[in-house]
Amino acid sequence: MTQVTLNVNGSAHALELEPDMPLLYALRNHLGLNGAKYGCGLGQCGACTVIVDDKPVFSCVTPCAGLEGKKVRTVESLGSAERPGPLQKAFIDKQAAQCGYCIAGMLMRAQSLLESNPHPDEQTIREHMAGNLCRCGTHLRIIEAISLVAGQNGSAT
Amino acid sequence: MTMEKKVDHSRRAFLRGGALLVAFTLVPAARRAWADTEVDTLGTVVLAPDLPGSLRTNPYLDAWIRVGPEGITVYTGKVELGTGVKTALLQIAAERLEVSPTAINLLTADTALTPNEGYTAGSHSIFDSGTALFNAAAQVRELLLQSAGRSWEVAPPLLTTQEGVIHGPAGQRMSYADAVKNVDLHLYAKSESPAMPATGFKLIGHSLQRLDIPAKVSGGPAFVQDIRLPGMLHARVIRPPRPGCTLEAFDAESIKTLAGVVQVIRDGNYLAVVARDEWQAIKAMRSGYESARWSGGQAIPESRDIHTLLERLPSRRYPISHEGTPQVATDKSYRARVTKQYLMHGSIGPSCAVAWFKDGTLTVWTHTQGVYPLRAGIAEMLRLPPDRVRCIHTEGSGCYGHNGADDAAADAALIAMRIPGTPVRVQWMREQENLWEPYSSAMVTEVQANLDAQGRLQDWNYELWTTPHNERIVNAGRLLPARLLARPFISAPSVPIAQPEGDGDRNAVPLYTLASTRINMNFVTEMPFRTSAMRSLGAHINIFAIEACIDELAARAGSDPVALRLAHLADPRARAVVERVRDAIGWSQKSSEPGAGIGFAFARYKNIMGYCAIAVRLRVHPQTGEVQVDHVVTAVDVGQIVNPDGLRNQVEGGIVQSTSWTLYEKVAYDAGGIRSYDWSGYPILRFSQVPKKVDVHLLDQPGQPFLGAAEIVQGPMAAALGNAVANATGRRWLNLPLTRSEQPS
To answer: Whole-angstrom Cα distance, residue B726 to residue B124?
Structure first.
């Protein structure tokens, strides 16, 4: 066990962890956050996607020990069920979920895109999102939800 | 001593009577389209055959609806699998109770609370549970009106209700909660319910937003994976390299010394580790995989040989349709052999369950599709009376059929019994889901048909080979962990789902008018791989094969393939979806780009449920054979629509998922083992391969019965892709998946 300080959603947490523990398990089991999901443990499906500093990462293959001094954000940082953030609201408005297991990871990958490129076109969205798998076939609605926010960003600038 | 000798044959099939009888003796009443289904595989008992929907098996009104000071509670034995059905059922109940949806607490499958509606499967939830609630809710409201009317000495037709309050003509008011005090809802439902014109619906037919999505986009506790109970331990299982292996050596002692490990379980060939922390459990599991030594195991065939193997293995031949006598054949005939490889459900979240043995009762939180059959299987496995086991459905990742959910629940149950008083969470790893979930069967079909001198379809010969599509939990032996124990259980004999619902033969009978048919299913009982239900069962390949044959016969006759379909469709609702798609896509114009093609397909799911026509425009890359789907147009008729946006979401999802199955998916294996242990070995469609544009046309049928929607697209989409590829390339690709199989030259 090692003490690791994780900065998650703006708060610092000093945790006693095995240093090789992937971030996913620290988020879910030590911080009680449900957003990041276990899908493959191999960085192949994106259900566990979170943002570290400004990049989307697979939390299932990111050891905690390397995250000192970095800022981790999960889907919980975007808003709540009662007060959803713009991207969450777009997913609700477009009803962009079926089972919803992949959705928190989709939101975080999309969020990272919108932060670096507020006006992505559809092709850019498709390419950027290709790292995340959805099995229900909700892709078209996910693209629509992201495009909706991209359009709102456009009107704001 | 061999494993076979240790098997207790008295436990082969606790539901033998139920399963077999239900599968074969309930003659479907076409008038209402209630049919014998995979839903009934659990041995639900029909108590009231004249009642609508699941009231047949659960006729008491208070099994569905209770009213009290705490409000209105509505119960359904169906579960949310990600299709939005919970929201749709709420809409139906609220509509007929004439209250706001927020006034209802809706509870889904829980063996302690809800009716036994068997499995949530087969596009049956709205058809069964929706129909039951549609009637039960209206009858309960009527009883409440009568109660108020008696109190006030006013005839019920003079009363109105608003938001759960009954209003009398002289300004009287009585809440439902007060009115129910003089009503006994423990009463059989009646076969007729108060009428409500579809034009009066305020909720049914409207797009209520789904109840579950806000939590899912914000990290709320939404899934069984998110359950955290006080003192909960984390478990992992260690599986053999393949079915049938015997454990020769295992170093449990050294695993017990690892950090956090609480228990190491060995029972025959069954292995599991339990630790305080999830990561510690994973490390202990990995250590267990390293130390376990196995021998033996089932032979695994070579992938390239599987279809000839299926035709040779022991099977039972079922006649499916033998009608008419063929007339003299013309030269306009077509013959083809169509194949499909094993498919995975491929849930994004591997199976998970939480179990807690406390005060003599085992509670299991599970994403099973059928809490009651699972309870019976677990109780048998643990030698507990069923009333000491409670299974509570909690959502998991989308399953699309029988995946690892039940087996993971059995794992949690076995492990929790070893640690009384402590809740245990079991999470399967990705490779465990991929290697041990029941697959969708590989299949072979042979079609041969011709046109008579008048251009009519005739002499339709169709033969298919399949392993079972419905290995649901009818005994403990259907649960994988139970097969690994020192005293193993064995699976009940395989039984196909009867027509018209069908099994591997689902949709093997075309809806088209055929002068004569010879359709047979060869039900292969020896399974090279364990197979069970996956969305649409055999309909995927059967509709693909039928629609390919129709297109080929049209080409030989020089006819338009859509016109040929219409010439053989008598049902006006079938014709309507075909005509809508034909007109909406501008049939048969296609792009002038190289490799462009257009294809059409139609089916009515199981020939008794939802209607679906689809047209696809695509391009096939001339060198690589890669397929880009540019435009999909579909029209569906599922009877009275409950939630149009929910229906649209299901249809869009089905189009994307069927595209993935049809173009890309197959389990990779050879004699050395299964190779598809992760997503690199089982690639599914990614964003870059999603159809560019999908248009969904909903043909509502106000006031007509609910027909179910979730599976109706799988077959027609596959067939439209196949026909479009043939149109694009001039070659008929007959082996699925289309872009990753060798094709006839």
So the answer is: 34
pLDDT at B10: 33
Q: Which residue spans within B588-686 are E strands per DSSP?
A: 596-604, 611-620, 627-637, 669-670, 673-674
Return the closest-CA partner of residue B403 out of B506, B534, B298. B534
DSSP string, B275-338: ESSHHHHHHHHHHHHHH-EEEE------GGGHHHHHHHS-EEEEEEEEES------S-EEEEEE
B687 has a chain A CB within 8 A of its CB: yes
In B, residues 265-324, which contact A (CB 8 Å cutoff)?
A: 277-280, 283
Examine the fold and report which residue of B161, B187, B210 is the final residue of a domain before the chain moves on.
Answer: B210
The nearest CA of chain B is from the CA of A24 a distance in Å of: 10
Q: For residue B319, which phi and psi values (nearest 5 degrees)?
A: -70, 130
Q: Inform me whether the C-beta atom of residue B694 falls under 8 Å from chain A C-beta atoms.
A: yes
pLDDT > 80? residue A105 = yes
Q: Give the model confidence (pLDDT) of B484-533 as tens digits.
A: 999 999 999 999 999 999 999 999 999 999 999 999 999 999 989 999 99
Say which CATH architecture domain A79-156 belongs to.
Answer: Orthogonal Bundle (1.10)
CATH 3.10.450.350 fits A2-77, yes or no: no
B215 interfacial to chain A (CB closer than 8 Å): yes
Q: CA-CA distances (angstroms) from residue B637 to B30, B541, B707, B709? A: 18, 22, 8, 9
* A18 contact B CB<8A: yes
User: What is the 3 state secondary structure string of B243-256?
Assistant: CCEEEEECCHHHHH
